[in-house]
Design brief:
The protein has 15 helices and three strands. By secondary structure, it is mainly alpha-helical.
Length: 300
């Protein structure tokens, strides 16, 4: 962080670090323009680094233009290809690169980092509130710091209730109510639970992912109650979830997981996400509405 290269990179003034956002510059002309300087010498650094973000967004002609350079790159050039959807990157590109998979940051590590940032920035926030932020971020430091930045404008000590208000209420309570309705076969409350969450501005795909996560938590509590390290829930919620898990059989929870996962897959192909989500929940709550073999087995 002290040498000339590090300082220039941090300031964004380095001529030897070239960035391209493939999401907004996916055309072959954009790729050729940025690759035009590959053969040129560095501007003082040992290496010239090209960072292409969201590389999966490049068009096929752009990938082919990039491939020609990757096949025989100059010794002073390094390419960093970043993506959240590696399966969309051409195999010919992947075969000429080293792959590094970044995993979600564990909640406890994220919590320590947030506490360090809050202390250094003099943000008065209690540990329970930091825990809510860390769990909501689901392993993303950027999302966690973004929420912490929004909270920093509040006056006085920031409590967990303040965080939940900013994030749109306690989602844990909303999903607990939803799964109570599923367990009781109460289709009316299933629809009302979805309606109340959507009315608060929740994205349906995010709701489906949250419901899938809740079902996994119940399944773990039902089948492996001692596997505390596998659960990412607040300690005060664990007893409530354990009680709720007893209302389901492992088979019923697996069927719910399967239905929710299928609805998420189908959401990629159709715009009516809410209908797909509601149908999955109705089939989970009422096996007689599920035409699949698992639904038939549940009815038996």
């Amino acid at each position: 962080g002290k040498c000339a290269s590090c300082v220039a990179i941090a300031e964004g003034s380095s001529l030897d670090v070239i960035e391209l956002d493939a999401a907004s510059h996916s055309g072959v002309d954009d790729t050729r323009d940025i690759l035009a300087g590959v053969a040129l010498a560095t501007a003082g650094s040992h290496k010239k680094v090209y960072v292409i973000d969201e590389v999966h967004m490049l068009t096929t002609p752009s990938f082919n233009a990039l491939l020609k350079t990757l096949e025989e790159p100059p010794p002073h050039v390094i390419f960093i290809l970043a993506t959240t959807e590696a399966h969309k990157v051409l195999h010919t590109i992947q075969s000429r690169t080293q792959r590094f998979d970044f995993r979600p940051i564990p909640t406890e590590v994220l919590l320590d980092h947030l506490a360090h940032v809050a202390k250094s920035e003099s943000i008065d926030i209690d540990e329970a509130a930091l825990g809510v932020v860390a769990r909501h971020a689901e392993g993303s430091a950027r999302d966690a710091l973004s929420v912490l930045d929004q909270l920093s404008s509040m006056q006085g000590q920031i409590a967990a209730a303040d965080v939940e208000r900013l994030l749109g209420g306690r989602t844990e309570d909303a999903f607990a109510d939803l799964f109570d309705a599923i367990a009781g076969g109460d289709l009316g409350n299933v629809f009302w639970s979805v309606h109340s969450m959507v009315a608060e501005g929740a994205d349906v795909r995010q709701l489906a992912r949250g419901a899938l996560k809740h079902a996994r938590t119940l399944l773990l509590l039902r089948t492996a109650p001692d596997a505390g390290d596998l659960l990412d829930v607040a300690s005060e919620d664990r007893s409530v979830l354990a009680t709720q898990a007893e209302r389901f059989t492992p088979a019923a929870l697996l069927r719910t997981v399967d239905l929710l996962a299928k609805s998420l897959t189908e959401m990629r192909e159709t715009p009516n996400h809410r209908l797909l989500f509601e149908v999955a929940l109705v089939r989970a709550a009422s096996p007689e509405t599920d035409p699949s073999a698992t639904g038939l087995l549940r009815r038996i």
